[in-house]
Amino acid sequence: MKQLLTYFLAGILLLSSIGHLAMPAFYAPMIPEFITPLLANILAAIAELVIGVALLLPRYHRLGRLGFMFLMLAFLPVHVWDALKESPAIGPHLVAYLRIGIQFLFIYWGWKGWNQYATSSAVETKSTS
Fold first, then answer.
1. Which of 10, 82, 93, 114 might form a disulfide with 66, Cβ 3.0–4.6 angstroms?
2. HEC string of 46-62?
3. What range defines the domain where residue 86 resides?
4. Domain count, the chain
């Protein structure tokens, strides 16, 4: 079940990275006016691609989880900004607030994965020394 969520989120990230480049106009309403849409789409696409691939590779999975956590933290202010607008880009205010709640779950998932691997690595190091 844990791997299924990892594959699902990696797939979402990889599809989103393509979407940022193939359909930048779709993401434009979600980008605050003070951020250049082209730059935001390129940076988001690169970050999502790198993190999505890292989540799929066992050797880099731990870094992928940490990267995912930081990506969700980076997107959080933008999603709060969107939710506070008169007409959120994502849809009704309820959906915008639900997205923020889900984002906190994603942040926790990234942290837990990073912390779990850090803890198990520390235990393995102590037991082999």
1. 114
2. HHHHHHHHHHHCHHHHH
3. 2-128
4. 1
